[in-house]
């Protein structure tokens, strides 16, 4: 079986789970100071990049 379809399905499901977790955790952060909001959303906005890149490298390997 080709790795690309597996990576696409895993990537979409993983991203949806990541977004759900980030939104749920944002509810915990919202009552706090605005500077914590900035830090949280900056980290949450880029934290998905490393796992996604590893998944793409895995799918492209022969």
Automatic annotation (TrEMBL):
| InterPro entries the record matches | DUF2842
Q: Please indicate which superkingdom the organism of origin belongs to.
A: Bacteria
Q: Which UniProt keywords apply?
A: Membrane, Transmembrane, Transmembrane helix
Spans through the membrane: 36-60
Cite the Pfam families for this sequence. Answer: DUF2842
The name this protein goes by in its record: DUF2842 domain-containing protein
- What organism is listed for this UniProt entry? Muricoccus vinaceus
